[in-house]
Amino acid sequence: PVIVTSTTPDVCTVSGTTITPVGPGVCTIVVEQPGNAEFNGAPTVTLSFTIQPREETHAFQLFMPNVPRR
User: Fold this and answer.
1) Which of 30, 33, 41, 70 has minimal Cβ neighbours within 10 Å of its Cβ?
2) What's residue 24's pLDDT?
3) For residues 24 and 32, what is the distance between their CA atoms, to the nearest angstrom?
4) Distance (Å, rounded) from C-alpha 31 to C-alpha 12?
């Protein structure tokens, strides 16, 4: 089996082969496939990428009171 893990769980988590961003920062994923009696293990691969902060949007509704016109 291929084993996928995150070494930065405060930035990203792994469940099976699904990577989920948790917060901004550098996400580092390690992928391993150990060997057995018949096959050598695959080389370990480390992948890092940046997760940007989520842009916040704010909506405002302006309230204009009814002011009599002159």
Assistant:
1) 70
2) 95
3) 25
4) 14
In this model, does residue 39 exceed pLDDT 70? Answer: yes
* pTM of the shown model: 0.73
The Cα 30–Cα 44 span in angstroms is: 7
Q: Which residues in 5-31 are b (16+ Cβ under 10 Å) and which e?
A: ebebeebbebeeeebeeeeeeebebeb
| Token digits of residue 21 | 């961003």
Amino acid at 28: T
In three-state secondary structure terms, 17 is: coil
Q: 14 and 29 in contact (C-beta within 8 Å)?
A: yes
